[in-house]
Structure of DUF2867 domain-containing protein:
Amino acid sequence: MRLPTTEHTSRPWRIHEVAPDFQVEDVWALPTPGGPDDLARLVRQFATGHGAGKGRPISAPVPRALFAIRWKLGALLGWDRPGTGIGTRVPTLRERLPADLRDGTRGPDLTAVPFTSVYQTHDEWVAEMANRTVHTVMHIGWVPDGAVGYRGQMAVLMKPNGLFGALYMAAIKPFRYVGVYPALLRMIGRGWRTDAGPAGGPGGADAGPTGVPGRAGHHS
């Protein structure tokens, strides 16, 4: 379910101090009911691409086709060349982090899509990606659900690259709302329901702070 922007901006997230120059594009309630400490489980699901189908970010036919078209255009027009990404066209947001976030858990990078982790706390996880058109931040928060539990909340923050980037993002917005986000939310919910983990907590007894088995998070 899409939420008002204020559902993100009114909460005391650390991302506000890290990326004040980014625009909040979308805020979504995620179908991931859980307890107060379950963000790590959701992070693990995102990082491993569970539920995406053969390592793809989206498995449904229509959004998968849209992604395929986007990557083909990117390859043809050079939108995704190495020199257009994080650390080249734009610096990583990790360079803006205050000391406590910089020295804390960074969190895992994604495997299905080119997002790299910026930081992870008990109730926040941030990852970023950039290309020739935009610098995008994915913010996953863990919030009370208004009843007796908690759920995930996803905000997408964007900083378009000039006029071309702004026009491009405006042009694809209808496709994101109709073809991408509904399938993405269904995929997240499906993965959440099937990735409950063994008794004693998601990810098993050897899971690290990121929720990834055998991994204690990585730092930089």
User: Anything to note?
Assistant: Residues 6-192 form a domain with the Alpha-D-Glucose-1,6-Bisphosphate; Chain A, domain 4 fold (CATH 3.30.530). Helices lie at 6-9, 15-18, 39-48, 61-77, 99-103, 162-194.
